[in-house]
Structure formats: C-alpha cells, structure tokens
Amino acid sequence: MDTGETQYLFKETRLNLEPPSAASVVSVCVPANHKPTRATTEDESTFRARNLASASSIYHRKHHDSPRSFLWRILDDGTTLSIRVVDVARRDKNTPDAPLVLNFNFATPILPNCVVLADPKEHDALCIFVIDEARVLWTLTLRPDTLRRRTAVDAALGDVAKRQAPTGLSTKYPHRMVAVNSNMLLVTVNDGGMIRFDRSISDSAAGPLWRESFFNVQGWKQNLRSLLPFQGKHTIRHGKVNMEYSAATALKVTSLGVEDCLYAVTVCLDHRLRIWNVGDGQILHTGDILDVDREPQDVGKFVIDPAQSNLVQIVGRTRGQRICATYSPIGAGEFKFWKIVAKGTHSVDIVDLFPDASLVPVLPSSDVWTLADFVLSSPAEGIMNLWTLWKNNMTYKVQRLPLDRKNMARSWEESWEGVFLDTSAWPPASSGPNDPTDVTEKWLSTILQPGAFTKATLNTALAIYEHGLGTSKENIKGRGIAEAICTVLGSTASLERGPSGSIDYEQFRSSNETQWRRFYRLLVELDRQRGEAISLSVDHELDTAWVVCADLVSVVHDCSALERLYYNAGTPEEGQEDLTALINAGLSFVDGFSDNFVQLSEAALRSELFEESSRTDLERIQYFSDKSGFWRGVTDDDCAQVVDALGDNFKIVTEELCGEVLDLIRTPSDSHKRAQVPLSEFGHKLALKGVEYSVELYWRVCFSQLILLVHMEFEFDNEEDALHNRIAVGQFYRRLLIALRRLELLRWLGRTDLSVPEIKDKGMSGASSKRSAEEPPVVTALEANVGQLFDFRLVKKGSLAANLTDLVADMCAIDSEIDIPPTLIQCNFLRHQRADLALETAPFCDYEPFSVYVQGRVFFALQDFNAAATQFRKAAIGLSSTKHKLSRQSVGLLNETDWKLFNNGPGKYYSHVVALYEQQRAYSYVVDFARLAVQFLGKESENDLTRTDMLSRLFNAAVATSQFQLAHTTLLSLQDGAMRYSNLRKLVDRMCQTGHSNELVALSFPAMQQDVDDILTQRCQTSFDVLDGFPYHQVLYSWRIRHGNFRGAASVLLDRIQKLKIAGEGDKITGDDVLDTPVTKQYLLLINALSCVEAKEAWVYDEGVSEGTAAGLPAKRTVVSLADIRKQYQDELDRIASIQNNQFEFAEDDVMELS
C-alpha cells in the first residue's frame, strides 16, 4: 500500500495485445506488389522491432460507432502500421465483433507523427492517412467488414490504399500531420509553414486525389535557407533536417463554435502560440505560450525540442469560444490556460485565464519524472479535467486534476488524483525438500499462466538464454514452447551423487530452482519493455482515459470502495479512520505469519468453506482456531500491534464497524441501474482481467479479517471483555465465509488454464482455419466460463470508468448480481473434455438435483461408472418431478431432446441415463437403468415409444452381457413384430456364437418357436463348413428333438451327412472301431430319430445336397424312407469294410496299363 499524500481514486487494468491466434492477423502489403522481409533471428532487437510499438494511440470515431475505437501502432522500425478495434461495448447484441488485426506492411518506413485517422461523415468507414520517408501520402480506406472477415479484406485489397507524391513535400520536410476531417489534412513542415490538403471532388482516377495549398509565416528566403546543409542561428537540427524556430511542433484544429470557419492553433519551436485561419493561411495571433515578454537575445534559451508533439489541447462547447491549454516543456514545465474568443473569421481574442498563477505540475513522487503526454477533457459544460502521463525510464504514472476555475491556485497544489497500477510480478516461493510440487511444474504453471507473458516474450527469452548457454537450436526445433523451455533449462542441471555416494536430490532441486529463477528474471526484464508508455488517450464520450504502451493497453477506471481504502491506507478519508485501522490491522497481522502458518490457515479454511457443519458459530470459530493453529506463531509484538491499532479490548470494533467492512465487499448501490449495452469481446477480456486483479485484493482483505476476528475472539483477560459480548461474532464469521467461498472460486478459475477451440470466422481461409484448429488458444478458466455463460452489461455510455469498476466490484461482491453457478462451469469443462477440472470444481457445488446430476456426468466422463450411477440415482427424484421445471442452462452439454426427458417422470429420466451408458458400451449399467425405466414407464399409451426403446436397449444390453434369460424375458415384452423377430435373430446368433446353445435349447420362446426353428434352419442351409464352422446342425437337431419334431431332426441329420460326405469325412475313423466315422455316427442318430415316429411317418425329404449342388447345379428333391436310410447306412458300412480289406471297385472308364 502506498503511504504517500497522493489520493488514489483510479486504477489501471492492463490488457495484452497478443492476438488469440495467427489466424486473426491479416497482412496487407503497401504497395500491393511489395514483398516484406522479416528477420529470422530471435534476439532483443528483433523482439523490440516486431512487438514493441515506436508510436501508438487510440482514435475514437465521431460519426459512427460500430466499430468506434481503433488502436493503431507502428512496428518493425516504422514499416508496419497495425490497426485493430478496441471497442469495450457493442451497439446491440446483433452487432458483430471485429476481431481481426490488420498489419499494413509499407515498402518505405513511415515518418514519425505522420499517421492520422479520420471518420467520414457521409459513409461508415475509417480513413487512415500516412506519409512515409519517401514523402508519399498514402490514403487507406477501411470498411467495418474488413476488420471482421478475412474475405472482406481480400475483396477490398485493390481499393484499400491510394498513393500520391505531393509536389509541396518535394522541397519541404513534413513534421506533423493532423486530419481536420476525412477531406482535409494539415501538414506542418520544417520551414515554419503548413500545407493544406483538400480531397478532390472529381472521381477521375487520372487526376490527383489531393489538392495542395501552401501557408507560410516566413518569406521565400527563409524557405531557401532551410534547405541549406549548414544550420543558421534561427534553425535547430532535428534528425537530418534543419527546423526553423517558427516551425509548428504541436497542432490542434477547432471551429471555435463558428460555422464554416476553421482555426489552427499551433505551438512552435520558438515557444510561441500562433493561431491560423485554415481557409487562407492568415495568422490571427502570435504570442508566447506562457504570456511572457522575452528579449530577442533570450529566444534561443526557450527553443522547444522538435520531438515534443503534444503541447496544446482545446475543449469547450460554448458558441464562439474555447478553452485552450498549452504546456511549456522548458525547465520544470508549466501550463497556461487561455480563453480564445472568435470575433470573426479573421479576428480572435485570447485571454490568460489565470495570469497570477504559476501552474507547474506536481510530480507524482520525489523521483525524477518527465511529463510525456497530457489531455484536457471536458465531460460536461463547466467541468474540466487535466490528465497527465509521467515517465521515468520504463516506469510511468498517470494523474488527474479536476480544474477549479474559482480557486485555481489551491486546487492546482492540493487536488491531484493518482492512478494506481499494480505491476508487481511475484515469482513462486522457493521450493523446499518437502514441497509436494515439482520445481519444473511449479515454474511452468507460473510462466505459462494465460496473460502473464506473450509467446514472443517467451520465445525471445528462450533464444537469449539458449545463446548464453551456447547450445544449438536444433535441440528444440519443432517442439512446443513448454517442452522447449524444459529441454533447455533441464540441460543445465544433472542428477549426481553426493559425497556419501547416494544420489543428491537436494543439489539437483537447488540447481533447477536457480536456473528457473534466472530465466524468470530474463522474462520479467523483457516484459517490462512491453509496459513502456507511448501515449495518453481520453475517450471524451465515455469519459475514460487510456494509456497506450509498447505492447499493452491500460484502461483507467474508478477505484471501488475497498480499493480506494486499501490504496490510500496511509491517508484515510474523513470518517473512515476506524475502518481503515481495522483493515490495516488484519492485513498487517496476517503479513506477520510464516509461510507454514499461512498454509495451515488456508487448509483449515477450505474445510470451513466446503464442508457442511452441525456446530454452532462459536464452536466453528473454536474449531478453526484449533485446526489452523496460527496462534502458535503469534508473538507479543503482533498482539501489541493489533491493540495499538484497535485500542484496548479492541474497543473500536463495533457492530457498525463490522457492517462497514461487509459494505466494502457488497454490490455497489447503483449497479442495478445498468442499461442493456452488451460488452464486446475486448470488453469481456478487459472486465475479466479487472476481476483477476481485484479478486486477490478482496480475498486478502476477507481472509485477514477472518483471521483477525478469530484472534480477537480468544484474546481477552476477563470473560465480560470477550468480543462476542459486544458484537455478533458468529454472524460476521459466516458472512466472511460466504464472501471467501465466492472469491475462492474466482481465484481458482483465474489460476486454471483451459484450451478452447477458437470460433472461426466464416470468411477465414482454409489454411488459417486449419492452423487455428491445430493450436487452440489457452485462456484462463475464468475467461472460458464466465465469458460464455454471462452477458456483462455496461451502465450508460457516458461513464465507462465508473461502470467498469462497478462491474468488477459486483463480480467480487458477497451479494453479487452476477450469478456464477459452479454447476454450469462444470458443464462447460465437460463440453471441452476437461473432466479433471470439472471434478476440481465439485467442492463449490451445492446439492440441488441438477447439480448432483452434473456430478454424475463428471464421474461418467472420468469412466467411474459406479460413482456416476450413484449420483444419477440421487438426482432421480428431483429431475423426475413434474412439479418443478429447470432453467435449461447447461452451456451446450444437454440438447433439447435431453431436456424434454427431465421433469417428465422417472421413466423418461432413466431413459436419458440409459442412453448415456449405452454410448459408452457400459451395458451392465444399461441393464440396471433400463429396467428402472421400464418399471416407471408403466402402461400409458403416451409412453409406448419410450417403452419400446427401453426394451430394445435392455435387450441389447442383456445380450451384450450374456444375460440371456433377461434378454428372453425382454423379448417377450416387445410388441413390434419386426423388431421382435430382428432381436430374436440377434439373440439366437449371440447364444450360438458364445457357446450357450444348451441354454438356447432350454428357453421356451412362446409363440416364437417356429421363428427360432426357421432361423436355425437358415443358418444350417448356409453353412457348408461342417468341420470347423459352428455346429448349427447339432443345435437345430437338439432344438427339434426337445420340441418333439423327430422328422425335422432327421432331415437336419441327413443334410449334415451329405455335407460330411462332400467334405471327405466318410473315411475318417474317430474311435476304436474302424466302422466308427462321423458319417456312420450321424446315420445312427438319423435312424434313431426316425424310429421314434410311426412307421408310415418314418420318412424325410432329401433336398439333394450333393457335389452338383456345391458346384452350383440345381438339386433334386426326393423322399427317403427309414428303410432307405438303413440301406444307405449298410452300404456305408460295407464301403468302409471293403476299403479296410483293400477291396477296391473299378469303374467302367478306369484304365490301367500293365507292364
């Protein structure tokens, strides 16, 4: 906390400018045939050229607002002009964001201070005017779609840039350029004159785009002298150019509230203020910017550095007059405020508003500071604010001064307001031998935290570090940044043995820690360069100040009540002395703890936050005190410090003071007045970054107050002096726990990384889309979840600074209007396949039915099906009840079909669970929940489709888990004939394939026996491999014998006998008896089967399966009786016997040659 006299009423929220992916950056060559070249080396100079802007600012359009604010930057040593949209809010929900970054690559470097933007009133576009070192004026026109879709950029390439080489710049050197509007430009040149460029009305492409008009305060001799190589007594060298003292280095254009007339107010190098009539170039006023008469010989002592570009500001709304502020950078620097009154088109009066006041700006601190920029704003008539930007090397500070015109001298000395910027980047604590976190893992999580360091910073730091080690880049080529960092840093430490001969793990850990800290310091040093302030910009419509840095942008907004008290702890506001003392006492008390006691206290706090307790409030406080044990580390000095701040027996701590502490963390009183203005994507990131900064402060304050409360509760000598006798300690304790629970969730989300697929622009090229898909951006879980679940709103357009503060404070408040259901966060994690993060979110969730269901989905995604089933059963009653309806919010985890199954009876709910388990092929759980679904669906006709679906799923699951009796029972319940027959076929095949033919034969299959017979018969007919294939003939034989169909069984055996003969199994002996072959065995079974029927019925059809049938010839159907079968059996026996006796019968066509 700062203890200086400056009151910090504002704070900055910084935002990185790194694009989310390479696909959002579009490069445009100017001219179109130019082929830019980029350095291939990665060193600090290349890093600065590519990523750190040499000039940058924000332009806010006046006539159109979608998009409205544009950030422009000069990169690559002046050869690249980068344009992007930085709108915080959108006009309405239907207005698309503009996510693209346009990089215009110029063949010739751009001149300093020669980039201006303008807003055409006639049509929605952005005009950019650039003068390069070849003194060529480029006119770029961008339509809104060119910053939204890549295809729009490609289509407009031919019309984007237009070129003109002005004749007036062939002998003059441009110094400053301003855009009066989209049709008029003013350029100050080195000889003290100006050139006015007017856009040609003619649309002819042959003629010049701009008409030139020349104005000069000097004669032609002075113009000629400025071209000579030597420097005269009235010139100053700036770069390669001689600048006349009369050359304007700062320029503002105003109408002074007069129609059809424009005035140019300039501050020149000779320390003079000149006012020009823009129409004819006539000078209407000349005077010293501090209204001091100087001797001619002293003119050289008050020459302004030509590098100064912002020395004049103009505000006002009154017709015919404006307020002008000028700044003299000579010496300590001094401001002067003027009232300029137009007496006509060629006459103005200028009056010093404070002639007796010496308006030297107050420095932010005792260090050496330089005023780098300032802006005079007037948010309303009669109100003026002076914003100043101070720099000290890479450090900067911003101040604001509300101008009190009635008491200017006093307000100038006492009313400066500070802007707080927390730029501290704390590395993680040193690793110890008992640290459960690995050194590499701890440092990687810190370095790769989204928003901590850009990819360019990481790559450059790694290249510099690698160069210092003298290693080759080939070792890390093609690897990701995390793997590359680990490879380079890991090569510096080796696991060696200690003096005792054992492996020295402590030395290895210490060496690793040292290398990581060196690399981190290098990263921090590079990152500091990104925060160098370039310019200060104020959005007059939204009354918001922006600090544009080399590779960052900061938004200045009001401090919340807690932040204002915290940042100004050394100088508390009137009436808040006791409140400040209580907050400071808690923070100082906890700051005195060792790391060990802080960790123990936080561990004890987690159980208080996330575990249900049946204890009373005082018992909970006692339990927390015992479990944390922080009192063991509290010294007498610590106790005395608290007593000094809060008085004996903590007498200043009252019920009202505790209420004031809670008021600091409550929602701002006017937050409900917000208008419905949706934030843009940039605005979402800005608000979430503000939350990440603020939540740590809120958590520290609440945590320290909780610890201090527990300490004060047990720090008394007499019982009557106990704190709980004066205030409701338990209630205050519970309220702090509620606040800490929400803050802990926000902290965890801010520390957790998540890779999210980028939303592709419909106009992106295929290559870009593919690259974006391969490298999804890594963001914090806070951005991934809160940004998608909730639609932030701004208040009214005129107070962005205050509204952004209210928005951030509301997010951190104990009674926040912005609901952050952990259950929906879990849904989002599940949608991104991060069930591990969803499980970590579980402690924050409640026990509502939908929350319990989502816990089941979490376990389900982790493949813990048993735990998931338990949660699904717990949620069944709440999600089945038709009396309660859900809000139907799941971030896409559930579709419309799923929602219709909730709150529609237990049967529908269980059918949803069945579908989940079936997708994962967890068939045992499908069986359990499908039986429950069928049980609760009942016999109502409206549930017929669902019941049929559940029966089908139950049947399939039973078959998959070999529960064939259940499958048989389920099959009988199916009413659809076609489905039942299809499932019957599946059941028969499955039982046969898994060797459960005995169970198949034993099943009754009422009303389906013939279907089973037909299925088996078809399998037998199509089965020709009776040797190695499944014995369908045997199954069908058993089936028919069991059901008394002996003739049918005989026909099966006859078919098998014929296929065995074709397969050549008739001569294969299978037993001790030579007559015992597979064919003869089947004949015996066949004869026995036919013997079981009456003699007149003892016959079967022979379907004629023979060699001819196998060859594709049609078979003949004949009737075979029992007598025929016996004869065939006897013939087979005789044939086998003849073979065994070497008796072979020759056919008529057999021919044998005898020698």
TrEMBL record:
InterPro entries membership: Beta-prop_Nup120_160, HEAT_Nup120, Nucleoporin_Nup160, Nup120_helical
Keyword vocabulary terms for this entry: Nucleus, Transport
One cellular component (GO) term of this entry: nuclear pore
Cellular compartment(s): Nucleus
Pfam families: Beta-prop_Nup120_160 (PF11715), HEAT_Nup120 (PF23300), NUP120_helical (PF21486)
Protein name: Nucleoporin Nup120/160-domain-containing protein
Domain Nucleoporin Nup120 helical: 605-736
One MF term in the entry's GO annotations: structural constituent of nuclear pore
Domain called Nucleoporin Nup120/160 beta-propeller: residue spans: 68-563
Principal subcellular localisation of the protein: nucleus
Domain Nucleoporin nup120-like HEAT repeat: 825-993
Organism: Emericellopsis atlantica
